[in-house]
Amino acid sequence: MNLEPVSHFFYSDRLKLQFWDWGTDDKPVLILVHGGLDHARNWDWVARALNQDYHVYAVDLRGHGNSAWAPGALYSVAEHVLDLSGMADVIHKFPVTIIGHSLGAAVTLLYAGVYPERVKKVVAIEGVGLPPARKLEERPAADRIRDWIERVRSAENRTPHSYPDLASAVRRMKEANPFLSDAVAQHLTLHGTNWNADGSIIWKFDNFARLGAPYGMNLSEVTAVMSRITCPVLLFWGRQSFAVDPDDAPEASAIHDRRVVKVDHAGHWVHHDQLEIFLQETKKFLAANGRE
User: Taking residues 180-185, what's their average pLDDT?
Assistant: First the structure.
């Protein structure tokens, strides 16, 4: 029998955000944070595997899944850190363990640097070496703002793409990640889409979440925040990924207690592409002696 989570909502920055609760109350807290243009139910396989030892929660970031879209369509990394902080405060059982992927992994690492005393361990899947920190490093502020304005204006005139049926959306999901099995792609698509009135399918995420913000931390600032992380950190990287190898990411080298796992035959979504390897390495890391 497949365990199903319970849906809850909390408020952060006046937005109504959803998280999924997998139980159990007497276990240590584990929070799962998805990546950009994704949703919390992408963690279902991980949540079920770790639920024996942890009280697992999975959050839908603002503008994603069943969480509210941000008025004004600002989706800065700092705002995502704010939302994670709000959810952790609602749970209020510190220190917590957090697993994040991509954008969610970057948010998780920054949270661990801002609140080091509140985090026991971090597993970050492809959360370092992300392009935004590098793009913000050298570009003049006027150029950043102008480019952002042009992206927003373009998005305002764009009609979100729809699909005639679920099968078409599943095919698009598999185009984005060829490593996905049919069953996983179907699950991710079912939980990541809504139906329009005419029966067509549309993704749940806010298209403006693609745009980020015209401001943010540059690479040196990100590195400084990550240098404040005191808990053990496990960094995953798929060898067939477009992301930067953590060993080549300056911000990763600032994390004092880190371990890197590089996974063959895996792209950006290591926890989907090589689930068994991901779970094996994660369970071993979480069980090891570390911060209590």
Answer: 96
For residues 10 and 116, what is the distance between their CA atoms, to the nearest angstrom? 23
Class of domain 6-156+209-287: alpha beta
Are 127 and 97 a contacting pair, CB within 8 Å?
no
SS3 123: strand
* Cis peptide leading into residue 95 (ω within 30°): yes
Pairwise CA distance, residues 97 & 163, whole Å: 38
CA angle 68/62/233 to nearest 5° reads 155
pTM for the whole thing? Answer: 0.96
Position of tokens 């992994």? 105
CA 227 to chain centre: 21
Q: How far apart are CA 90 and CA 219, in angstroms?
A: 31
233 near 109, Cβ under 8 Å?
yes
| Cβ-contact 241, 261 below 8 angstroms | no
| Range of lowest pLDDT (8-12, 16-20, 76-80) | 76-80
Angle between helices 219-226 and 103-114 (to 10 degrees): 60
Q: What is the pLDDT of residue 138?
A: 64
Please provide the average confidence, as pLDDT, over all residues in the chain.
93
Mean pLDDT for 72-79 is 88
Query: Rounded to 5 degrees, what angle do the CA atoms 276, 36, 113 make?
Result: 85
